[in-house]
Amino acid sequence: MGGNSKVYGAALLRLLPGGFGEVQHPAGAAPAWPLSYDDMATAHQAGTARFGTDPSASVLDVQCKADDLDNLYVADGSFMPSIGAVTRP
């Protein structure tokens, strides 16, 4: 777990370049991701957790609290439909 896990109380993904290609395992091969490491490094992930007033069409209520858990709130960009920042190459 990264250093930010103490702040957020969760594990943060730390994506590495080698994790995007095909990986050979004793039981077979795991296929490569459809995106490259460079694609992910320049993307701002946003809007992955829909919020709204209808629990059947969203995972968060309008206060960003998870619909199915009593004490889970989302406080990152995943509930935002877009981000007003640009990654520099």
SSE blueprint and pairings:
Layout: H1 5-8, E1 23-25, E2 28-30, H2 37-41
In short:
By secondary structure, the chain is largely without helices or strands.
Question: Explain this structure to me?
Answer:
This protein is mostly loops and 89 residues long. It has a domain at 46-82. Helix content is 10%, strand content 7%. The protein is built from 2 helices and 2 strands, in the order αββα. Strands 1-2 form a two-stranded antiparallel sheet. 1% of the residues are buried.
Distance between the first and last residues' Cα = 27 Å
How much of the sequence is in beta strands? 5-15%
**How would you sum up the major sheet?**
2 strands, antiparallel
Number of strands: 2
Shape estimate: elongated
Structural class: little secondary structure
Major β-sheet strand ordering: 1-2
Any idea what the radius of gyration is? Answer: 17 Å
* Mean pLDDT over the residues: 75
Estimated helix fraction:
10-25%
Order of helices and strands: HEEH
Query: Which stretches of 5+ consecutive residues score pLDDT under 50?
Result: 1-8
Number of helices: 2
Describe this protein with a few key phrases.
single chain; 89 residues; little secondary structure; two-stranded antiparallel ribbon; 2 helices
